[in-house]
Design goal:
By secondary structure, this protein is an alpha+beta fold. Helix content is 20%, strand content 30%. The strands form 2 sheets. Strands 1, 2, 3, 4 and 5 form a 5-stranded mixed β-sheet that branches. Strands 6-9-8-7 form a 4-stranded mixed β-sheet, with helices on both faces. A hairpin with a 5-residue loop joins strand 3 (49-50) and strand 4. Helix 1 (28-39) packs antiparallel against helix 2.
């Protein structure tokens, strides 16, 4: 049995958790404003590292108990958007804010397993957000292979097959 190579959060001397995603997006400062408005993210101001040209070589956002690191692409770098799972308390309100800020709904709020509602949005930077909201007492949906809705898989499949890697 292999021991995890990751340190536990209590052993980390810097900011963040055992795993902290990092994305490279055009207009990192704009993405920070988006994440603050839509998800209630808080920028770790001490981490903001601008380049002489005004872009960001490093920035950090705290979203809930997690940390998202980001930068603008530097000369010769490709953008590297991410795929994120985020637990929210009101998926409809988050989607409304996200759409108002230029996001596209990929999967509308849909009952999911374990008394959850799942929705997906793609933000203007190409990041895909899986939004999960606990819904106590909501029954599990009927699986698509038993005649239930296939929207959870189909909407993602159609989006990813049609999405360009901009």
């Amino acid at each position: 049995m292999n021991r995890s190579a990751a340190l536990a959060g209590t052993e980390i001397t810097g900011r963040g958790q055992s795993l902290n995603p990092f994305v490279i997006v055009q207009d990192a400062a704009g993405f920070i404003r988006f994440a603050e408005r839509v998800f209630g993210a808080e920028e770790v101001e001490a981490a903001r590292t601008p380049t002489p040209s005004g872009g960001l070589i490093h920035a950090e956002l705290r979203i809930g108990d997690s940390l998202l690191l980001l930068s603008d692409p530097q000369p010769g770098w490709a953008r590297r958007p991410g795929l994120f799972q985020l637990w929210v308390d009101d998926v409809d309100a988050v989607i409304e804010r996200a759409v108002k800020d230029g996001s596209t709904v990929v999967t509308p709020p849909t009952p999911f397993y374990g008394a959850l509602t799942l929705a997906r949005v793609e933000d203007p930077w190409g990041n895909l957000w899986w939004l999960y909201q606990p819904v106590a007492g909501q029954p599990d949906p009927v699986p698509s292979w038993e005649g239930g809705s296939d929207v959870v898989f189909r909407s993602l499949d159609e989006h990813l097959r049609g999405a360009s890697s901009a």
